[in-house]
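User: Structure please.
Assistant: Input sequence and predicted structure:
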Amino acid sequence: MIRTYVWVAFLATLVSLTACGGGAGTESPETPAPQPPQRTIDEIVIGAANQGLDSIIVYIDDGSDITHYAAGHYDRESERPVNAEDLFKIASISKLYIAVAVAKLVTENVIGLDDSLSLWLPELSGRIANAEQATIRHLVEHRSGIPDFDSAPGFSWQNAHQDIEATLALVYDLPADFAADARYEYSNTNYLLLARVMDRVLGFSHRDYIQQAILDPLELQHTFNTYQPDFDEQLISGYWQGLNRKGQDYQIPGGSMVATASDVGRFIRALNDGSLLSAEERQHYIYWFEHSGWLPGYQSVAGYNVSNDTVVVQFVSTTGDDSEQIANDTYQDILDTL
């Protein structure tokens, strides 16, 4: 999720079913249980919507063909059918774009993976735990020990989050979760800080750099660094706790991007096939090659299966209750079908 939901969508649950039969002290021969016919992707997607998801979009690129699936509605008011090319808040999938930008800037000798956070943001020394010890590498890999702002006192998913400085201030003076590089622990603060470092070293917004270095070369014309109110006719409504959260703006780096499933799929393909990064940039790319995301009303996953060279992107516009489990099961069912 923007929190601990990362990678949940990639976990499968193995369920073992045992059938017992008997009579008069004799053991009946084991007969394999009949297996239900494998469902098509269409049937899986429609079935997920019928379980209560407001909408679901799936994009599949198997290396030779691209297919799109969609079921459910764009919003509850109009019940307009969702379109596979509608915009969506992709939440923490945004972190992949920041990690790519870091790799490119390291290759350009603008920053170094072993530069400390305090080297570039000295004003945070004494305010952010581990600022002197945590490096760019630690931030990218979630090994900094810097607390996650979304677990800090004062943070609530009920609110919009538009003020980046106020969000960062939530972790001022908090103790470190652990010593830098001692272990892995996912923290959204890491990517907020990476963005802040890039803004400082570039002298302009990291979002402009992502546009120039990633989105423009890949011709991703339906990917945007932040939510804008004029997206409302294109952006799917996302529901959490019965409320439409479309207008609940989240501007924090590492979770703010908006895109179509097609654009995310093309990005994931380019990240995994080597066309997005040069050979030297790939040496400096130290993050994952797939990701999931969660914001109120929006859950997503963008994965790549190396065994069959397939990209699968899934968007679901409902969060809470059992929607996360339905989404996880649906994604796994799709992987099992491919």
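The domain at 38-337 is CATH 3.40.710.10 (Beta-lactamase).
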